[in-house]
């Protein structure tokens, strides 16, 4: 029986006509269907066309056919036929029944997606310039890997392609002082998936987690989605204030950004690193080290990863290609303590089988050829020029009115504006956006936004000024200068006027 | 301060030497560090090299420096320094503390990954032939999309690229009789992620889920990982036996494969479809329609999707590109009832932000140009030849000794072998593999494997023979013939001998 018999065009319309008549009762169950010969004559189409429609209806259970007999409408289904309108289905809104996770996620406040409405000069953190992507090298490697035929296409290994894990092992030793086995590496869909896997596998609703305050909101939300209780720990110029780590036996996990605290930019000193490790050991808690931009450190060599001094197998290292290549690539990785390797591989496989194999092999070939690290070095110089332009523009246009922190590394800074209060951040951002400049308030990254009322903050916390997170990785030096100039006019205007 | 000052080579070794001496107490807290001048002279290196190492140590908190003063070792960390051996960390194995989900996933039995040890002629279900991938069309579209620069690289929309969702909307209407809005479509990392998102958002540990018996193991495991109770419902030649749907108020979800039941191949008739919808309405349960191979139906037009007759907004449709393009691509999609759209988008964003943007745009361009559907038609003819070869080889080499079911659609069949018992399946598969042929027992796909003991099965279930799942999509006609011939020799041998 060939594909040529399948109803299409006129046959399709006959099929739909009969299906509609069966559904609305015009053709009652048990009744004879019109003979194919008669229907073909009535409609002026070939009998083959009608027969194909009937076969389709029989295959779907609307008709009962047997060789040489006239077709009959199938016995009544045990239930009334629903109306066939998908529009109606979409209108049928109701409060859906969800799991506890679903209810928590449903009512969760997430930042507006960056894909909406970019500003002309957008200091959006996490954005990169398209022209910085190593298009030629990527294209060459992609073509080579696409044409390197494997015998068959099957689900690949959940832990990631062996070639990429080997390449990453070498890269991590060279660039991040991290000695690990390739077997400890799990390739995932970006650091967000790494964080989500950790949240699912390590936290229950009755647990608690330590979180930097201020900190990375999309990570915090992942942990909160498990139902666990957040234990915010304040951050100062040196990152997490480890003296204030809670002695709370529910704490099962601490999420930290030791190489370049997000958003305030501090580098966690060795004393605090050791204190954090000791705390984790006492609590039997896990430490998530999110090394989201550790390759971009200016002046000094990048700080070695916290995991490199973890003697107790408590640190889970998270790396990403979102800052060095593209956030749209969705590739990142975990370096896991050995005890966690089997369960993370199982979970990755259940979650989505594995990361796309071809992109992984392309990346492996770029690392192996040295092209990846050349690109990172080039981008480090490029970002350093942007950072210098930003610092210079701030000291030119906002002298004495602003201070910049966190500029030693990464792709963003925080700009404190002592003449403004946190509650003014949103209005300033809105005014800047009207003038084509995107800037981002720092207050939403605090656990208890002091923008509500500085006096309600715990007495130990000094009142803080307004702050903005400025990402500069997607902008040209000229855009940075112009953006700061426009922003400065807004900041100086109201303060003086 | 330029990158040129960062320690590398000799500087790196000086850094490591000092870090080691600080860690082991040779350089005590508060003590003066060797002067850079002296150390440079001692080691015969430039003072700049030593200074760079000191700056790095200061940045990491090992040294305290101030302009014009000699550097000192930083005050004692409040905790003893751990040993610096990552090997030791990896050896420190212990039972890790995991969440309830983690513990369930950790002890879960999953099939051996397909990436291990392929057979020479492998009837692995889910495998495709690399030569069938539309390499040229893909490469052309990929290059065009890669070079079509966007102004900047930012996190893309969690629901997927607008171009792909529009293209899918048209495709689903043409190919699957499914009228939906592009807004109902959520692009995900393959159907496995679609299933996992449904499990997380719709099931709690105290819930239950309806499952086809036998059915798709990787879906069942996802639901079990939530802690919910499986309610297996038997399958016959027409798919799920809806008369046996449980009246269990814990049932929140039913997972079904109505277009081509996996693995037995039945097509769910309209009466049962309506009964299933009615049951879901009564139970306020969701139906997951996994349309994993609905585009490959031989002889008749593909059956319309179950969601196309859902008037109540209870059916979640799952589609994939794993069967038509490649399982390594990791792209699939959900068509959601409108009530579920917001929470699924939120969850996708928390889970891993979004699917890779470039692959999505390539796919959209292939669908828009018609190349995708041409490819599917070509593959339908190709697979039909393979299927015919398989059926022909079975009737030639195993006349009267085997029956094939589920051949009307999809990329696999089930071969029943009445002369063997289910408990013989594993030995037969092992013997076949020794002769270079990979075949897969059907028993593990049953909820209560009768391979343990047929007599322990509920009395209503007739004893069933041994069965094998044979996927043919990755094999040539010649391989299929040879594979069946080798298998037949093994089946006929012991039965007659």
Give a brief description:
Chain A has 15 helices and 18 strands. With 497 residues, chain A is α/β, with parallel strands linked by helices.
Description:
2 copies of one chain form a homodimer. By secondary structure, chain A is α/β, with parallel strands linked by helices. In chain A, 39% of the residues lie in helices and 14% in strands. Chain A is built from 15 helices and 18 strands. Chain A has helices spanning 10-23, 36-43, 47-59, 86-91, 100-106, 135-147, 162-176, 190-202, 217-225, 270-283, 341-352, 357-368, 371-397, 425-434, 477-496, and strands at 63-64, 72-73, 121-122, 128-129, 152-153, 185-188, 208-213, 229-236, 239-240, 251-256, 286-290, 315-320, 332-335, 403-405, 412-417, 437-438, 440-441, 466-471. In chain A, the strands form 4 sheets. Chain A has an 8-stranded mixed beta sheet, sandwiched between helices. The longest helix of chain A has 27 residues, at 371-397. Residues 1-6, 77-93 and 449-459 of chain A have low confidence and may be disordered. The interface between A and B is large, with 159 and 160 residues. Strand 4 of chain A pairs antiparallel with strand 5 (152-153) of chain B.
């Amino acid at each position: 029986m060939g594909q040529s018999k399948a109803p299409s065009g006129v046959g399709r319309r006959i099929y739909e006509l009969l299906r509609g008549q069966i559904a609305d009762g015009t053709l009652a169950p048990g009744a004879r269907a019109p003979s194919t010969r008669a229907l073909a004559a009535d409609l002026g189409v070939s009998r083959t066309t009608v027969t194909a429609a009937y076969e389709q209806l029989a295959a779907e259970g609307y008709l009962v056919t047997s060789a040489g007999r006239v077709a009959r409408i199938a016995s009544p289904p045990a239930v009334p036929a629903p109306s066939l309108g998908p529009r109606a289905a979409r209108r049928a809104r109701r409060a859906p029944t969800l799991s506890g996770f679903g209810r928590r996620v449903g009512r969760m406040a997430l930042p507006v997606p960056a894909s909406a409405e970019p500003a002309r000069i957008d200091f959006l953190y996490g954005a990169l310039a398209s022209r910085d992507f190593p298009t030629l090298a990527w294209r060459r490697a992609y073509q080579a890997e696409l044409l390197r035929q494997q015998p068959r296409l099957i689900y690949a290994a959940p832990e990631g392609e062996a070639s990429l894990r080997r390449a990453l092992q070498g890269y991590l030793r060279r660039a991040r002082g991290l000695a690990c086995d390739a077997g400890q590496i799990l390739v995932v869909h970006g650091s967000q998936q790494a964080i989500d896997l950790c949240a699912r596998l390590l936290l229950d609703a009755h647990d608690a987690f330590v979180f930097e305050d201020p900190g990375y909101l999309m990570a915090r939300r992942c942990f909160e989605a498990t139902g666990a209780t957040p234990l915010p720990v304040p951050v100062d110029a040196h990152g997490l204030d480890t003296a204030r780590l809670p002695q709370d036996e529910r704490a099962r996990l601490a999420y930290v950004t030791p190489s370049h605290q997000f958003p305030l930019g501090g580098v966690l000193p060795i004393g605090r690193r050791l204190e954090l490790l000791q705390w984790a050991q006492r609590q039997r808690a896990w430490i998530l080290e999110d090394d989201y931009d550790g390759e971009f450190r200016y002046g000094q060599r990048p700080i070695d990863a916290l995991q490199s001094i973890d003697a107790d197998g408590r640190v889970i290292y998270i790396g990403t290609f979102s800052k060095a290549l593209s956030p749209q690539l969705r590739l990142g990785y975990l370096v896991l303590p050995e005890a966690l390797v089997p369960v993370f591989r199982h979970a990755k496989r259940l979650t989505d089988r594995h990361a796309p194999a071809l992109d992984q092999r392309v990346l492996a070939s770029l690392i192996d050829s040295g092209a990846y690290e050349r690109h990172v070095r080039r981008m480090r110089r490029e970002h350093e020029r942007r950072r210098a332009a930003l610092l210079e523009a701030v000291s030119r246009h906002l002298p004495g009115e602003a201070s910049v922190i966190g500029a030693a590394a990464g792709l963003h800074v925080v700009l404190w504006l002592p003449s403004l209060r946190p509650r003014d951040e949103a209005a300033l951002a809105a005014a800047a956006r009207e003038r084509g400049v995107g800037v981002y308030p720092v207050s939403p990254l605090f656990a208890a936004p002091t923008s509500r009322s500085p006096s309600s903050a715990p007495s130990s916390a000094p009142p803080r000024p307004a702050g903005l997170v400025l990402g500069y990785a997607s902008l040209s030096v000229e855009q940075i200068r112009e953006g700061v100039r426009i922003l400065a006019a807004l900041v100086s205007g109201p303060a003086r006027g």
